[in-house]
Amino acid sequence: KWEEILKLERSGTVQDISTGCQVASCNEKLQEAERKLLVKEGEINTTKTELEETAFQLNETKAELNETNEELEDKNIELANTKQELKRVHETKCTLEKGNLTKWDLFYSSAYHNQIFTLQLYEQLQTMWDSLTKSLVDTRMTDEVIELLKRLDIDRESICNDS
Known about the structure:
Blueprint: H1 2-7, H2 23-92, H3 119-126, H4 143-152, H5 154-162
């Protein structure tokens, strides 16, 4: 029986049997694997943080894009209304309704204001205006001249307002 064997007297030497794995070598491999794991966990955390920041930036950009789209829609509506009014002005030769501007206010722009009205400018504008006269050539477009042109065109405006 096994109990009797343990009670017997023993003599001799004990030999270690090699398992093929050195404990020190296995511990080194384990530590290296743990170090690599920590490095990878750090990389994962860094990537996670970058991803969260990118997602935040994406949401901000989407919000800005939505705001820009809304502004664009408003501007497109305003553009359509302006085109419609310009078409009406061109067809009826009436003054602009928006801001009480008239076609003569074009002469307040830097290309004309306080400049000599040349034949070349006349030829550019005559295709758009029936009421533009060649007698304006060589006239300096001062405030007084522009206002005079507007007043002279009042009869045409009153016709438009009556219709």
